[in-house]
Design brief:
binds zinc ion, alpha/beta, 6 strands, 198 residues, six-stranded parallel beta sheet
Length: 198
């Protein structure tokens, strides 16, 4: 088991209080990413200026520690893409749910896009088109457990076991087998998280 550590945008108002403790964890061998960090202007639980400050600081930590940043981006695409453009570093846009234009901007900046169970939802045609076209070396998939359980478990608590359903959906979209997809994504994950080395 490996960890990503970071202060989520929903808790960005506590960033100052948590910063030292979180930062100290970044040098642990099994901490392989800073995350989830980012901006959520949809729920908007925390003032946006506080979200931006916490996000930018932690993006800088990811870069200075040589860690990937796992980014939560909701209703804040322009702001997140702008920050990634300025801060650089190794970036995963987790649970990618934005449109094709945002995807191509993110890919141009070197981001990896990670897809979750919502690619199986009936109304997700646009998202499926994005997932079909992402270059194979920029692709991850994830559960986002306990949220976003794939069909036919939508609405229930998500489980790591349901990752198989997400892999099957993604493989069928991309016209490859699940083992082929898994092999490719394992290489991508290792390149981002360096867990082969620990
Ligand atoms: Zn998230």
């Amino acid at each position: 088991v490996y960890a990503a550590v970071g202060v989520h945008p929903h808790r960005a108002d506590q960033f100052e209080a948590e910063a030292d403790r979180v930062k100290a964890l970044l040098s642990q061998a099994k901490v392989v990413a800073v995350g989830e960090i980012g901006l959520d202007y949809y729920r908007d639980y925390v003032r946006q200026d506080l979200q931006v400050a916490a996000f930018r600081t932690q993006l800088g930590w990811a870069r200075s520690h040589g860690l990937a940043a796992c980014i939560h981006m909701r209703a804040a695409d322009t702001e997140v893409i702008g920050a990634v453009r300025e801060e650089g570093g190794s970036v995963v846009l987790h649970c990618f749910s934005s449109d094709a234009a945002v995807a191509s901007e993110a890919l141009a900046l070197g981001c990896t896009l990670s897809f979750a169970g919502n690619i199986t939802f009936p109304n997700a045609e646009q998202l499926r088109a994005v997932a079909t076209n992402v270059p194979g070396d920029r692709l991850l998939f994830e559960t986002d457990s306990p949220l976003l359980a794939p069909q036919p478990w939508r609405g229930r608590r998500n489980e790591p076991a349901y990752l198989v359903a997400i892999a099957e959906a993604l493989a069928s979209l991309r016209g490859c087998s699940v083992p082929e997809l898994a092999a490719k994504v394992a290489i991508n994950a290792d390149r981002l998280f360096h867990w082969g080395a620990t």
